[in-house]
Amino acid sequence: MIRCEELVKIYKTADLEVVALQGLDMQVNDGELMAIIGNSGSGKSTLLNMLGGLDKPSAGKLFVDGKDLLSFGEKELVNYKRETVGFVWQNNARNLIPYLTALENVELPVLLKGRRCRARAIELLEAVGLGHRFKNKLSELSGGEQQRVAIAIALANEPRLLLADEPTGSLDTKTSDQVLDLFRTLNQTMGITIVIVTHDPLLARKVDRVVQIRDGKTSAEMIRRESYADELARLDAEDAMSGQQESHIEYAVLDKAGRLQIPAGYLDADGFKDSNKVRVEMEEGRIILYPQEMMP
Ligand SMILES: Nc1ncnc2c1ncn2[C@@H]1O[C@H](COP(=O)(O)OP(=O)(O)OP(=O)(O)O)[C@@H](O)[C@H]1O
Ligand SMILES: [Mg+2]
Questions:
Q1: pLDDT tens digit string along 12-29?
Q2: Distance 36 CA to ligand 1 centre (A)
Q3: 197 CA to middle of ligand 2, Å?
Q4: The domain spanning residue 33 has which CATH number?
């Protein structure tokens, strides 16, 4: 569904240039539900904006659903945003119109698509579990319910790809869990590919694959040992003790040129701190890094 190769984004402002993405590689399969994590400023929103066609990469390759986004003209970009992607933001002021009801909010994008709208809008609100609240104004709904309205809107154009930037950022843990459950249900029932950007490692742990971005590059991938559904079933069967076990295996990401980011902290060890050179040796099928030998 998504293929980014050596993706670069440079923001130019009056007096400086910020390199927000510096050669990022990432692939997402059709039908996947995955998360992107990373520190503030690491380039997560920048990446999501490129994927959503809201901004253009400076260099690299970007394919979504088989389409080459870098080759798009204005018209193709509008069609892409209208037909292929849906977007959910953390701050639902960007998604919603406060003085309209839930139903009117969802009707609007359906209307723009030119479909018979009321029935479809009700269908979408039912899909996000809000069938009973559609007459309420936004101000009469809780934060989690408002976010579900936002998700219904993002689904209005029947996108193949749903992008969510910190969708649970302003929700408490319990409500975040419910929103994540909703994403999981939509992913399973509609087969829609979902990419969630989050700060929250606990939330990220509940999806099967997590990609970590550091300084505008993918640095690691965490892949589940067993699917989340299987784990829940197992935990139900056993008692809570085994919940302590780490659920994901962490991999560092090796790029095509053979570069790799060593996980933060590893290089604090003695011998690695004092030099920017390491000796790389192949021993019995393993690649081993040794600190540079210091001259006596
Ligand atoms: N429009 C812009 N103009 C100039 N610089 C920008 C712009 N948008 C983002 N940046 C810079 O690009 C870098 C990446 O920003 P980005 O918003 O992608 O980070 P992020 O990972 O989403 O962070 P957060 O977790 O805080 O949302 C930052 O250094 C940021 O200051
Ligand atoms: Mg961001």
A1: 988 899 999 999 999 999
A2: 15
A3: 8
A4: 3.40.50.300
On whether residue 7 sits in a domain, the answer given is yes
Lowest mean pLDDT among 55-69, 104-118, 147-161: 104-118
Answer yes or no: is the C-beta of 13 below 6 A from any ligand 1 atom: yes
Strand partners, 218: 213
Across residues 181-198, what is the average pLDDT?
93
Listed residue (260, 252, 255, 263) closest to 7, CA to CA: 255
Q: Tokens representing 69? A: 């986004």
Structural domain total, the chain? 2
Q: Measured from the CB, is residue 9 less than 6 Å from ligand 1?
A: no
Same domain membership, residue 173 and residue 255: yes
Atom number of ligand 1 nearest to Cα 21: 14
> Please, what is the Cα angle at 191 between 148 and 115, to 5 degrees?
65
Smallest Cα–Cα separation from 21: which of 4, 2, 46? 46
Q: pLDDT tens, 28-58?
A: 999 999 999 999 999 999 999 999 999 999 9
